[in-house]
Design a protein that fits this description.
alpha+beta
Length: about 425
């Protein structure tokens, strides 16, 4: 059927503060940051599962955005499928080793149940999540494996992570009832998470239209299409399927400007808006499980072994990690709209900060990037189908969902 009446819509751009704490940011070395940023923007691209075009009342883009904003759904459960194709090279499991090393989680330290260790798993391939929510104080997300399951549960003041494969448990507590701290641990899991981030970019650099209808997870939905008006963005278009009754995003699709398959496909395959059973959010560590408290990871009080400093005090963080955390404190954004580029200074020189793998690893990682030159000097660009990052020889980092040329331009102008 023909697309519905649509219009270009602009709204005031929402300003946001970085959500990650400095102590968390310091655990990531730069090559992992590239994958982390990619995983954080994973909501940008799934192909809508269209099993017929429902006949729904006409609606404008402005009305549909307002419908999303006014959605008051707090109880739901269902299954979400995420397929990601960022075009990352196959490192043969090296990305997991990098993440583990970057976060201080060797054989004798850390926990495989720490939510931060799961970010890189969502950066490629297809994953199935089982989710449930009952208001701001109770949520559960389970990442299903072939013969294992990882669950992240927020119930009141408690946040639990459980990895059934290793039988390890991560635990933290929060005083915030609205889930500010527990959200810090939770990767984006639903189309709504991704839609909210995408709609923050809606301003006068954006085209927003309604493009017909679809049926997702057995529910009738409108299709909202968001496109950059500017050139230089790696984003081609974002399509959001919005439930016509509740205003809840059911599926989120982002296709790259370069064409081809969607970068990420995130959508419900099954959904219910009934209140989940209270027992869904109950958790007790299984018998024999290793339990790690969040404070133990942050302070190094447990599992550090010989890596600890004098009298059991944790060693000072490697200079590269300190520099990275210091740089993130001074994060700046260059440009506007879809061509925005985030930049910070690591405080070091030589391009890539030293990784835990030594010069051989640094050389290997450097070989994966493209050497570039400009008024800023020289540097290395690491590319995905969506997020690109430039690391300059004088220690600056430029990251954005923009082309390599746009990164170099931003670095030249920011010098």
């Amino acid at each position: 059927m023909a697309p519905y009446e649509s219009d270009d819509t602009t709204t005031a751009r929402e300003a946001g503060e970085p959500g990650a704490r400095r102590s968390r940011a310091a655990r990531y070395i730069v090559p992992v940051t590239v994958m982390g940023v990619a995983a954080a923007t994973i909501g940008l691209v799934p192909a809508l599962a269209d099993s017929g075009d429902p006949d729904l009342p006409k609606i404008t883009a402005a009305q549909l955005i307002e419908k999303i904003a006014q959605s008051d759904v707090e109880q739901l459960s269902g299954t979400v499928k995420i397929t990601t194709d960022l075009g990352l090279p196959d490192l043969g499991g090296l990305e997991s080793s990098l993440a583990s090393g970057a976060m201080g989680q060797g054989e004798d330290g850390g926990s495989s149940a720490d939510p931060t260790t799961k970010l890189t798993e969502l950066a490629s391939g297809t994953h199935t999540l089982r989710i449930a929510a009952d208001g701001p104080d109770r949520q559960k997300v389970s990442l299903l494996g072939n013969a294992s399951e990882y669950s992240l549960i927020h119930n009141g003041k408690d946040v639990w992570g459980y990895d059934s494969e290793s039988n390890e448990v991560f635990h933290s507590t929060t005083e915030e009832s609205a889930g500010d701290k527990d959200r810090e641990h939770q990767p984006p899991a639903t189309p709504k998470d991704f839609a909210e981030e995408a709609l923050k970019s809606v301003d006068d650099t954006t085209s927003v239209t309604v493009d017909g209808t679809a049926q997702v997870a057995g529910r009738d939905a409108y299709k909202l299409v968001v496109k950059p008006k500017q050139s230089g963005s790696t984003v081609g278009a974002i399509s959001i399927a919005v439930d016509h009754r509740t205003g809840t995003p059911l599926k989120f699709t982002l296709t790259p400007a370069s064409g081809g398959a969607a970068v990420v496909d995130v959508g419900f395959t099954k959904v219910s808006f009934d209140r989940p059973a209270a027992s869904t959010f109950d958790f007790t560590p299984p018998k024999g499980a290793k339990v790690t408290e969040e404070g133990e990871l942050d302070s190094g009080e447990k599992g550090r072994g010989e890596k600890g400093g004098e009298h059991g005090k944790p060693e000072r963080a490697p200079k590269s990690e300190e520099d990275l955390a210091k740089g993130l404190d001074g994060l700046k954004v260059l440009g506007e709209g879809w061509n925005s580029v985030a930049t910070f200074d690591t405080g070091g020189e030589g391009g890539l900060p030293a990784g835990s793998g030594g010069s051989d690893l640094d050389g290997f990682l450097g070989s994966l990037g493209d050497r570039v030159k400009g008024e800023f000097g020289t540097g290395t660009v690491f590319s995905t189908r969506l997020v690109n990052a430039l690391f300059t020889e004088d220690g600056k980092v430029y990251v954005g969902a923009v082309t390599q040329d746009a990164l170099v331009k931003a670095a030249n102008e920011g010098k």
